[in-house]
Amino acid sequence: MHVTGCKFFLIETYRETGAISEHLMVRVDTDSGHTGWGEWSDLSHIHPGSDFPNFGQLEEEANHRIAGADPLDVSGAMDRLDGILAPAFDIALYDLLGKILGAPVYVLLGGKRRDRIPFCYPIFPMATPDDEDPAQEVRDNLRRVGRVVDMGQHRIRKYIGYNVESEAAWLSAFHKEFGDSVDIKSFDLSGRFHWQDALAILRRFWDYGYELAESVSRRSRGRVSWVGNYASRVEMRDVKGMAELRRQLGRPISEHLNSEEDLLLFKEHEAVDLANIATCGNGIARAKYLFDFAHSIGLGTLHGTTQELSIGTAAAAHVMASLDSIDAPCDPAGPLLYQQDCAAERVRYEDSCLVVPEGPGLGIEIDEDKLEELAYTGARLRQLRSSAAGPAH
User: Fold this and answer.
1) Which residue has better confidence, 236 or 352?
2) CA within 13 Å, CB half, 150
C-alpha cells in the first residue's frame, strides 16, 4: 500500500455574521482506495489581504514529494513534504492512518479520556464607530447569543474591540437579556491594547464574571520567521507587561503560545496561566506534543481556534480527547459559526460541549459535491477592494 498523490480544494464559506472565510481542504489518496482529509482553516486570518500562496504550484510539488509514501508512516510522509502545508497534511495523514487501521485518531494518540469537551461560542468585537449609535449592532449580537442558546449552548467568549463604550453598551444589554444563564469564558483583547489600558478595561468589566482574559498586551511586529516555505513576521509581545497585568488583575491570563521557547519564556516570567494552542495551526502530532509540554512545565492549556470547518474541528476534538487534562473550555466553533460546511454531517455540539466524533480516522466524511458548491470565487477580496475604493463619485 502506498500514497498515490493528493488534491487541493480551495473553498469559501460565509459566517453567520456575513463575513467570508477561505479554507484549503487537502485530500491524500492511496492505491488501496483509502483517503485522508486535512484542512488549512480561515485563510482570511492568516492572509488578510490577497497574498495567498500559489496553491497550484504547491499542489504539484506536494504530489511530486508524497507519491509513493507509506501511509502507515506518518512521520516519513511528513519528512517527504518538508514543510508544505504541514498542519493540513498532518491532519490528513492521521485521518488516513485511522481509516486504514479502522481506529479513531484519538486511539492513535494514546486513547480517549473524555467524550465531550466544554466549549464556548465567539461574539466578535463591536464595529460601530465612536460617533455612531451602537444600538443595532447590540441587537444583532444579542440575537447571535440567543441563536446558540436555542441550540443548547450557554457559554460565550467576547472579543473586545477599540470602541470600548460600544462594548460596554453590549455587555450591559447582554446581562439584562441573559443574566447568569450564559457564562462568559473570556474577554479576548486580541493584543489591541497596551497592558495598562487592558488592565483598566478588564477591571471595568470585572463584575461580568469572566473566567479569564486573553491576549492582554499590544503586539509589535518583529523579526521575520520562516516556517517551511512561508515567511511570517513574528509578533513581539510585552511579556513583562503581561506579567504585571496578571499580578494586578487576579484572574487567569491566556496567550497564544506555539513553541517550546515561548512556553518556557511566559512560564519563567509568570505572564500566563494558560497556553492557547490550536491543532489546525500545528497539526495533530505537534499540537499534542505542545499540550503535553505545557503541562510538563506547569502551565494550564486551552484549545484555541482559527474557526475551522468540521475536519479541523474534529482534529481538535481528537487531540483534546487524548489529553490528560482540560483546563478551560475550548474555542473551535466553526461548524456553528459558518452557514456552510463541506462535511456530509458536521461535528456535533451538545449542552455547551463539543462531542468527540467516533468512527475510523477523524470520524468525518467529506461531501465532494459540497466542495464544488463552495469553490473559491474571491468574494471576500472583492468586498475588501470595494470597501477600499469607497463610494462612487
Assistant:
1) 352
2) 7
